Amino acid sequence: MRQSVTLVVNGLERTVDVDTTWSLAHVLRNSLGLTGTKIACDVGACGSCTVIVDGRAVNSCLMLAVQAEGQSITTIEGLAVDGRLHPLQQAFIDSHALQCGYCTPGMLMAAKAFLDKNRHPTEEEIKEAIGGHICRCGSYHNIVEAILIAAKEMATA
User: Fold this and answer.
1) Most buried pick, 34, 84, 125, 147, via CB within 10 A?
2) Are both 92 and 58 inside the same structural domain?
């Protein structure tokens, strides 16, 4: 069965004809061409597909596109503004928190949703916030450091 779905993706309203069984991740990648959202496990276990839906981090492989009707979705492609990297993106670069990069988009989106709610996190709170994300390269220490750095910058902005 097919259905028309209207989503606000990275600030732009988009109407897409979808199969009602398609995940939000599938629609973002295959219908809208936003391939920054990764699909690694397809069962919500790794966090690579994380996007922000109405202010909360969501595993887009587990959410049906039809469930996102009318909601505001931010993907990794929407994080930079006017060609300027978001403080989180810059902190990941500066802290060498990037290895293979496969987990990076989901990790950044989870961190963004978390920092939007908590501008002064502790290291333990950050570890909890990214706890559902798997980094195959083991860059967790650098990722936590990057989030701490970005939190300080975002708190003063």
Assistant:
1) 147
2) no
Domain that holds residue 99: 87-156
CA 106 from centre of chain: 4
pLDDT, tens digit, for every residue of 94-117?
999 988 888 999 999 999 999 999
Q: Based on the domain organization, do 74 and 7 belong to the same domain? A: yes
Q: Are residues 39 and 101 in the same domain?
A: no
Q: Which amino acid is at 4?
A: S
Give CA separation, 149 vs 19, 22, 94, 153, in Å: 41, 37, 10, 6
Write the DSSP assignment of 14-70 as a string of letters.
EEEEEETT-BHHHIIIIIS--TTS--SSSSSSS-TTEEEETTEEEETTTSBGGGGTT
Domain stops at, among 20, 51, 78: 78
Q: What pTM did the predictor assign?
A: 0.95
Q: Tell me the DSSP string of 127-144.
A: HHHTTT---TT--HHHHH
The per-residue pLDDT for range 57-97, each reduced to its tens digit, is 999 999 999 999 999 999 999 999 999 999 999 999 999 99
Q: Please, are residues 17 and 52 in contact by the beta-carbon 8 Å criterion? A: no
Same domain, 120 and 53: no
Nearest to 46 by CA among 37, 54, 55: 37
